[in-house]
Amino acid sequence: MTSRTYDQFCGVARALDLVGERWALLVVRDLILGPKRFTDLRRGLPGIGTNVLAARLRELERGGVIERRMLPPPAASGLTATVALRFADGAFRARIEDGALEVESGVRNGADLVLTTEVETLIAFLAGADVPPAALAPEGDTSLLERLPDIFAFGAIV
Fold it and tell me: Are residues 50 and 92 in the same domain?
């Protein structure tokens, strides 16, 4: 950690020794939801310098607050696909191209996968809840449907 310490035998003081440096608590906040790559952390913390972020990560790892691990490549890496989403109150077209996502209102022909469902059902499916694929009324590339929870992973519903 840093050379600064509160030098007190108190849980709060010890916690501040570990996460009290500038940006450290915000880094922890971003990692609470799950593992992230350095670039994802940087994008989520506008204004933090790369040297400061690297230093905070090293300090938090040394203090046992976080643990470094290798992540698989992003789920949408190298993927090009179009998903049409039809809901009761509107329709959207999501274009995935090598990790980038572009969404526009309306649905055109030629989607690789078409889903007709309720918004809540789609969210539950993407979050990993026990939603049968039939509840999404999929038409088209069902292998793409199986990849969607990994591509749009945002944490499990508790």
Answer: no
